[in-house]
Each structure stands twice: as C-alpha cells, then as structure tokens.
Amino acid sequence: MTQDNSSQETPAGQTGGGDLFNTAAGWVLFAGVVGLGLAQLSKGYFHGDKPDRPEQLGYVIEGVVEDSAGPAEISIAEALNAMPAADLIAAGEKAYSKCQSCHTIDAGGANGIGPNLAGVMGGPIAAKGSFAYSAELKALGGNWDWDKMDAWLKNPKGYVAGTKMSFAGLSKVEDRAAIAAYLNSKGSNIAVPEFTAEAPAEDAAAEGAADSAAPVEGEDASAAEAAGGASADQPVPSNPGTGE
Ligand code: HEC
User: Fold this and answer.
1) Domains in the chain, start-ordered, CATH in brackets?
2) 229 to each of 2, 114, 214, 219, 241, how far by Cα in Å?
3) Residue with CA closest to ligand 1 atom 28
4) Lowest mean pLDDT across 50-54, 99-103, 113-117, 123-127
5) How far is the CA of 165 from the centre of ligand 1 (A)?
C-alpha cells in the first residue's frame, strides 16, 4: 500500500512538467478532434463532400425549360416563315413605330437622325450618299441580307461597335423578322430564305401522318370497321325498310 502510494507520488512529483505537457497535448488533441468533427459535420450539412455535382446547375422547371429553349433559339429564317408574308409585313409595320423617330421609309424620304430606309434590304450597307454614316458602319461592307439585318436590329452597338444608331435593339426574333420583312416590302424584294429545319418538317409530317393514320390505328380502326360493317349491312335492312 505504502509502496504503491509512494510509487505513484514519486513519478507524479518528478514529472510535474510532463503533466503540463500532457495536459497541453491533450487539449491540442481535443481541439483537433473537435475540428475534425466540425469539418465532417459541415461537410455533411453543406454536402461539400459530394463527389458528383449535378449535371445541370440551377432549377429545372419541368416542361418549361425545353419549351422556352425552343422559341428563344429560332432562326430569322424560321421566324420569317412562321406566318403568311402579308401578316408578317403588317406586324412589321406596327413594330416599325419604334424606328420612325429617326427614319423615314418611303422612297425619296428625307434623312432624319438616321438615313432614309427605302430599298435598304438587299442594298449596299451605309450607301445613302446624302447621309453621314459612322465610319464603323461604312466599314462593315456588303449588302443588307436577312442575317445581317437580324444581327443589326438585335443589338446595333453589339453588331457595329461605334455605330451612331442609338437604339437598344429588339430582343425578339419575331419582331426583327417582322420589321425586316416590312423593310423588304418598301422598295426591296429580296427572297425570303426557305426554312428547312427538321423539326417543323417532322411536325408537318407527323401532323399529316396523324391525320391519315387516325382512322387506321387502334380503336379507331375497329370503329371504322364497325362503321364500315354497319354501312355495309345497312343497305340490306334499310332496303327492306324503305321497301315497307
Ligand atoms: C435614335 C435614332 C434611331 C432609331 C430609333 C433607329 N435608328 Fe436606325 N439608324 C440610326 C442612325 C443614326 C443610323 C446610322 C448609323 C451609323 O451611321 O452608324 C441608322 C442606321 C440604320 C440602318 C442602316 C442603313 C443603311 O443605309 O445601311 C438600318 C437598316 C436601320 N438603321 C434600321 C433601323 C430600324 C429598323 C429601326 C427600328 C427598329 C431603327 N433603325 C431605329 C438611328 C436610329
């Protein structure tokens, strides 16, 4: 007993510094463990440890994303073919009100803040001799076609940095197509590009197929058969019926 007591006291007395060290080391270890635990916790909480990020970031709204991607991406060619030419030009005439403060459109019209636009479609860019164009627009070169007009009306300053046309642009391709078609009807008549993308062609084909397939498929077919059978049968009983 006494030996045990003394043996315990003696090392304790001798290693008083060691106790301090141990205590300090213990706290360091404790801090490390707590830190690690917190790190694990926060990983779990924030999912920072997830190895795989979702392929698509952001919110996916079912049924909306694909639909909105479609119309937003349609080309000027598709927009030009989306409705009968007369309707498109009429829509363009309305939308042209945004341009009227700076442009005249009728042949021989005066230049305003911007040049007269008669015959501009298909014609050479920045070529109305009486108008003082910016050097940047003059430098563009070439003729106004649908694609150039589309890009120009979408964002004039984006298309021709340094242009004098202070117009924010038309974000909707439908509006740009309508105005371009209207311009084209005023002293110009360049060909409207054919729209030959697969999707509408498939749609049209699908519609046609649906129309012709409707009576043939499934229940309709049996209904048609039944109707056929009935009509085939009808003359027989109806003839005696009418005969009576
Ligand atoms: C605030 C005045 C202003 C408005 C609004 C405006 N334009 Fe212009 N537009 C100009 C000016 C100025 C120029 C000449 C740009 C240059 O020289 O850089 C110009 C040039 C043009 C040209 C090039 C003409 C050429 O001879 O090559 C076209 C096409 C055009 N505008 C179409 C339009 C249409 C379409 C609208 C309406 C959607 C419109 N602009 C709205 C001021 C305007």
Assistant:
1) 68-184 (1.10.760.10)
2) 117, 72, 18, 15, 18
3) 117
4) 50-54
5) 5
